[in-house]
Amino acid sequence: MQIAALLTGKKNSTLKNKNFIKILGKPVCFYPAFAASKSKFIKKFYTSSDSKKILDICFKLGYKKINRPKKLSSSKAKHIDVIKHSLKFMKDKHNYTPDLLVVLLANSPTIKTTWIDKCIKKILNNQSVTSVVPVVNNNDHHPFRAKKILRNYLVTFFKKMKVSSNRQDLPNSFFLGHNFWVLRTKEIYRNKGFGPWSFMGKKTLPFILEEIIDIHSKEDVGRCEKWLKNFF
């Protein structure tokens, strides 16, 4: 099996320069790039970005540079288009198409090499699996408890469903992490999975973690620093 890593990150974001803010002396994007570089399964490494800093940081860790075009660097750009652009680059420039693609997100330093390798093993051991992704259980933000505003008032999304006010009574609710995803490449092109990440296919295995932090605010930076002190 040909397995490649693809780190994705862009220059502009809600928190300025979040992908290369330094935590414990290293830029944020260093951590996912470094974790994947130590995998015993991944043999080729790429990074897609419109940021020279991100490209240079990853290049020092052995990642080939993919200069992301402006149309894929806007706030409206979709991840699947960035991934497909990167796969096309691999094919056109290096005549290479991986069987599995490990997508790394530049703004999440909460990642371990052992996690990546365990997820890769899961997909290697079952040919029917289309992807393996980290998830966290969070019943505090359960979709059954969510509300929307209708004519200035809060109303439920699920009108005909009785929902307990006790989170313990609710079925477990899992949210996808944004630190890394292990994808079967052919499923990216099929794009027939469940939204909004339909490129993951319909048979996605969960890799359950207690915490995943992707940086969007200064508070997230502090949380990541605490996590890294314990685990890095």
Ends distance: 29 Å
- pLDDT < 50 stretches: none
* SS strand fraction: 15-25%
What is the CATH C level class of the largest domain, in words? Alpha Beta
Q: Indicate the overall shape.
A: globular
Radius of gyration: 19 Å
- Mean pLDDT across all residues, rounded? 94
Biggest sheet: strands, sense, closure?
A: 8 strands, mixed
Specify the helix fraction band: 25-40%
Enter the CATH topology name of the largest domain.
Spore Coat Polysaccharide Biosynthesis Protein SpsA, Chain A
Strand segment tally: 12
List the helices and strands in order: EEEHEHEHEHEEEEEHEH
Give the CATH superfamily of the largest domain: Spore Coat Polysaccharide Biosynthesis Protein SpsA, Chain A
Count of discrete domains = 2
State the secondary-structure class.
Answer: alpha/beta
* CATH architecture classification name of the largest domain: Alpha-Beta Complex
Instruction: Compute the number of helices.
Output: 6
